[in-house]
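Researcher: Please predict.
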Amino acid sequence: MRLVAAAVLSLLGMVTIAPVATGSPARPRHPRPFIAYSTNSFLKSRVEGAPVDRALTQQFQQFMATNHQQRHVPYPQIHGVQGSLWGMPFAMSTCADPVWKIGSAFGSAPLRWRQLRTKGFRAPADLGSLLTGTNDSPLVVIDRCDHFTVWASSVSVAGPHVLAVGSFGAFSHASNGLDRRNPASNSRRNFRSRGVIPDSMVIRKDEMHYAVVHHTDLGQVLEFFFVETDGSGHPCFTNPMVGCERLQSGWGTEGTRIAVAPNVNLTTRHCSPQALVIARTLKHYGGYLGDNSGNATALKAQQATPGHPIWHGVLSRNELEGCISWKDFVVIRPGWG
C-alpha cells in the first residue's frame, strides 16, 4: 500500500518516495586479482576431466616415497616464508611506478626483449629491497602498464633503477602465455629459460587473500620446483616446457603436470585456510615440474623479507603438512592442456 500511495502522490506532483529496501544489503565481492594471458592459456587451464596416466602415477608415487631427499617430506613445502630466502621476489606495477632497466646480463638475453634494456619496464621504487641475494636471486614483475611479465635471475641493483642480471626474459600479456618455441604458442617474443611461465612461479599474496576470503583457489597453474627430474629422455620435456636440464637422473620429464586427484575430499583434511587454498588450486589446476630444486619439492611463495613481512605469519614452510600428501596426486597424461 505504501508504494501504491507513493506512486499516486508522485503523479499528482506532491512528493516522491523511494521504495524502502528490505533485508540485508548484498555484500560487495571484490574482483579476482589480475591474472595475465588469454582465457585459453595453459596458466588458466583447469584439470577437471583431464586424462590420468595410471602407470606414471604409480611411478611418481613410488619415486616420491623412496627418493632420499623426498621420502621424509610427503607433501609440497613452501619457500619464501619463515626466514627462507628461496621464495620468489615479486611485484605488480602500474604506470605510476618508475622505469627500471636491465643493465648487464651474463646469461641468456633475448633480442626480442631488448626493450627491457632500452625502454625498461615499470616496477616499484623499492624493487631492490625485495631481492634475496641467493645464488639464483630471481625476480618476477607483472608490468600492468606495458602488459608483460618480466623474469630475471641472479638479480642485483647496479645503479639507480638499473639491474644487473644473469638471464632475463618476458611474456606478453596479449599472448596465450607460452614460450615462443612451444608449437602451441601464439607469440613471437615470449622467452624464458626452458619455457617456464614466469607467472606460475609464485604464490601471490593478493591471490591468496582473495581466495581465503572467497573460499576459492589461486586461479592458476603453479610450477613445482621439483626434487629431481629425469633429463635422459628424448624428448626430456613436454608442454608447457621447451627444454630440460639434461644432467638430472630423477623422475619425470620437465613439464609433467600433476594434480590432487578429483576424488580427494579436502573438507575431511586438517587444512589451514591457506593450505586449503593451495590444495584446491592443485586439485583444480595442478602444477607442472619445472626447475629442479636440489632439495625436497616445493612451491615458491611471494618472498617475505624483514623489510616486507607480507605474510605476517599466516603461511609457513610446512603449511601443507596434514592437508595433502604425494599419495593424493595423480599424473596427467603428458602433453595434455
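Model: The mean pLDDT is 92.
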